[in-house]
Design brief:
The protein is mainly alpha-helical and 230 residues long. It has three domains: 43 residues, no CATH class; 137 residues, Glycosidases (TIM Barrel), CATH 3.20.20; 36 residues, no CATH class. The strands form three sheets. The chain has a three-stranded parallel beta sheet with strand order 1-4-5, covered by helices on one side. It has a two-stranded antiparallel ribbon with strand order 2-3. Strands 6-7 form a two-stranded antiparallel sheet. A hairpin with a 5-residue loop joins strand 2 and strand 3. Helix 4 packs parallel to helix 5.
């Protein structure tokens, strides 16, 4: 099962699979030519790897093959580290949420915990470029993957369907306000596309560093450039 969870990304990122997965691909109808297509036309250099994480992501597997959700055991940071060590490309935390429950703060607690996971990833040196709460507004029938029309509102958004902000929306705003001046200057991944070490001396890199420095000092870059031009 662990080998299969990597299979689609192994193919898309041009990584050779192990013998067990190669036999699985051949038994499933893939040809050698199709397999080598993925190895030849590698997309890694064009990619940022998006990783979603929900409370239902991790599963326990019984000897007979039955599975069930196990809750948060490893967590986003550890699982993302495993993917990064395998593919060595920049990461983005592309999707997470938790419903606002009876206490009203369940989603806020989850947001703060997942944000700590993002900081843990960054502090370990893994280039992570962003974090997204999904979605902006509540969903309808998301609990049945839109397969049934029940008109059931899932309270997962930063705003409800009347466009009133939820507690998690306020918490998200606070995260942005607290970290917006810190992350651009301390991130290991300042821009997209990612600046590679071989490009550190380029004019583009120098421009990005100057923008980050001006942001940290509270000086708009365009104003700084105009001042120097004068």
């Amino acid at each position: 099962m662990n080998s299969r969870r990597f299979l689609s990304l192994d193919l898309n990122y041009g990584r050779r699979v192990d013998s067990e997965m190669y036999e699985f691909l051949m038994d499933s109808g893939m040809t050698r030519e199709e397999y080598h297509f993925f190895l030849t036309y590698q997309l890694r250099q064009h990619c940022i790897m998006g990783n979603d994480y929900y409370l239902t992501n991790e599963h326990q597997i019984a000897p007979d093959g039955r599975t069930w959700t196990s809750g948060e055991i490893f967590g986003y940071a550890e699982i993302t580290r495993q993917y990064y060590e395998r593919y060595r490309i920049p990461i983005m935390y592309t999707e997470t949420n938790l419903a606002q429950g009876l206490k009203g703060d369940e989603a806020v607690v989850w947001l703060h915990k997942e944000w700590v996971n993002v900081l843990r990833i960054r502090n370990s040196g893994i280039p992570i470029v962003g974090f997204t709460w999904y979605s902006l507004t509540d969903q309808i029938d998301w609990d049945t993957a839109l397969c049934e029309e029940n008109r059931h509102v899932n309270p997962l958004g930063l705003y409800d369907l009347d466009r009133s902000i939820r507690p998690v929306g306020n918490a998200y705003q606070q995260l942005i306000q607290r970290w917006r001046r810190v992350l651009p200057t301390q991130s290991v991944c300042l821009t997209v596309p990612v600046i590679r070490p071989s490009q550190f001396e380029s004019a583009h890199t120098a421009s990005q560093v100057e923008k980050a420095r001006d942001l940290a000092q509270g000086t708009p870059t365009m104003q700084t450039i105009a001042g120097r031009a004068g």
